[in-house]
Design a protein that fits this description.
- The longest helix is centred in the N-terminal third of the chain and has 14 residues.
- It contains five helices and five strands; from the N terminus they run E-H-E-H-E-H-E-H-E-H.
- The protein is of the alpha/beta class and 127 residues long.
- Helix 1 crosses helix 5.
- It has a single domain, classed as Rossmann fold (3-Layer(aba) Sandwich), CATH 3.40.50.2300.
- The relative contact order is 0.19.
- The protein has a five-stranded parallel β-sheet with strand order 2-1-3-4-5, sandwiched between helices.
- It is globular.
Length: 127
């Protein structure tokens, strides 16, 4: 997979830092834009202010949660084909299946260890 522009939507600032640090170790050529507010990210995508090849999306967020964001993006003709990867602490099979049924390309449970996140990102990005 040739993803060069990643959008991370997660309300936890620490998770942003960890994700971006791991991504920098995997591929310094990949650019990652982060948003802590899914509704703002959706607005920016609709306005064409964000260019992304793939979205990593947390589920448990205030204002607009990940399932609401996924539902909204899949309704929009100009955005529905952007691959969405759920990136959440959840690992419940019903949640995984529901988000895939809603159009998520993949579901990654956030790992506890930094090295595991690097391994996951390497595998996902084909590095």
């Amino acid at each position: 997979m040739n993803y060069r522009n990643i959008l991370l939507i997660d309300d936890d600032g620490d998770d942003h830092e960890i994700f971006m640090a791991a991504l920098a170790k995997v591929s310094p050529a990949v650019v990652c834009t982060g948003y802590t507010d899914a509704s703002k990210a959706l607005h920016e995508l609709e306005q064409g202010r964000i260019a992304t090849d793939v979205i990593f999306l947390d589920l448990n967020m205030p204002i607009m949660n990940g399932q609401q964001f996924l539902h909204e993006i899949k309704k929009r003709l100009n955005l529905k084909d952007i691959p969405v990867v759920i990136f959440s602490t959840s690992s419940h099979p019903a949640t995984i299946q529901l988000t895939k049924d809603m159009g998520a390309m993949d579901f990654i449970t956030k790992p506890d260890k930094f090295d595991e996140l690097i391994r996951i990102l390497k595998s996902f990005l084909g590095c």
